[in-house]
C-alpha cells in the first residue's frame, strides 16, 4: 500500500526553512507511530507531500496504518494511490481504467489531475483527454464537473503517475514536536479531555497534570483517559503524567476558607501547583478546559482572579465553546464515555459561590490557608512517562489469575468497545459480558453478587488494576482471566 500524505495548508505558507523543519518533523512522527505496525515502513518526500509505503498486505495492519495517520497532527489528508511510470496519454487512460472501469458505467463523472514537473501538456489537457476516453470506453452516462457522482483523481509528478483510489481526512494542525510544550490540567471530564485534544491537534505537546481529590479510583480513571488521548493522538512524542495529591489541600480549604470563595481559591491553588510543576519541566504554558460562565468560578472576573495566581500563560481552548459542542466533540474523539463515568470534585465544594469575587477578599481568605500543605502536596507529586503509566500502576498488585474459566463463572471483557468489536472474545460454554473499563467501577455493584466474575483485557494490566480496586471496595468475587 502506498499513501501520499498532504501536509496542513498553513505549513505550506511558511518560510522555506520553517516549512522544511515542520515537514521533517512530520516524517519523523509518522515513522515513530507506524513502526509498531511495520518495522520496515518507508517514509520519504519533501516540501508539501510525504510518501508512505508498506509491503505488508494484512488488512488489519493496513487499516491500522490509515487509522493512525488520520489521528496525527500535521496531516490535512492522505491519498491511497497506485504508482506507475508515466507513459503517454493512452497509457494514463489504461491505468485509470484498472481502478475505475467497474465504477464508471451509468455514472456522471469528472477527472481531476494535479501535476508537478515539466511536461508538454497541462493538467487540463490530461483531464479532457482521459475524461473523453473513459466516457467512450467505460459506458459512463456523461461528464459532470460541478456535482459528479464519481471523481477520477490522479497526480503526475515528473515521470511518475499516481492513480488515487481513496482519500482520507487528517487532523490538520502542526506536527507534534515542532512547537512548544504545554501542561494540561486534567480532571478527566468532558472539558479537560477536549481541551487536551484541541491543544494537541494544533501541534502543541501536552503533558498531563492531575490534582487527585478522589483517591485511587479517581486517579486511575484520569490516568486511563490521559493514556487514551496520548495513545490515539500524540504517541509520536513521549510526555509525562503528573499526579499531585490534593486531598489535604482541599481539606484545608474546607476548614479555613469561606464557603462562597472555595471554588476560586481551589482553582488558584491548582494554578500555583501547576506552575511549580511546569517550572520543574521547563514549560511556560498551562492549559485548562474552562469555558466562560459554565460554572461560578469561570465567570470573567473570577477567571481573571484565578489567572493572577500564576505568571504563566494560561490557555483555554474551550473558552467560548458551548457545553453541548464540547460533549459532541468528546464523543467524536472517543473520550465521552470516560468522562461520563469520571467523578467531578471541583464544582461541588461551594454553596452560593461568588460569581464576582474581589481580589482583596480572595487574598484575605488565602491568608488563612497554610501554604506548607501545598508545598507538601508538591513534594509528594508523582511524575511518570505516559507510556508507562498503566504498567506502573499495576506493579506490586497481588491478584489471583486463572487461565481457564469454569462453568457458572462470568467473564467480563473490559476492553475498549473498538477492541471488543475488532476481536470479540469467545470462550465456549462460558458466559461473556462486555463492560468497558471506564464503566466497570460504577456498574459492577449492580451485578449479581452471588456469581464469580473474571476480568479480561489483552495484556492483563487493566484487568489487574480494576480487579484490585474492586477487591479493595469489598467485592470478593473478582479474579483476572488470563487464557494460556
Automatic annotation (TrEMBL):
Leader sequence segment: none
Entry coiled-coil feature ranges: none
Pathway the protein takes part in: Cofactor biosynthesis; thiamine diphosphate biosynthesis
Residue positions of the active site: 457
Domain Rhodanese: 405-481
Chain ranges of the THUMP domain: 63-167
Record's keyword terms, sorted: ATP-binding, Cytoplasm, Disulfide bond, Nucleotide-binding, Redox-active center, RNA-binding, Thiamine biosynthesis, Transferase, tRNA-binding
One GO cellular component term: cytosol
Protein family per UniProt: Belongs to the ThiI family.
Name of the protein: tRNA sulfurtransferase
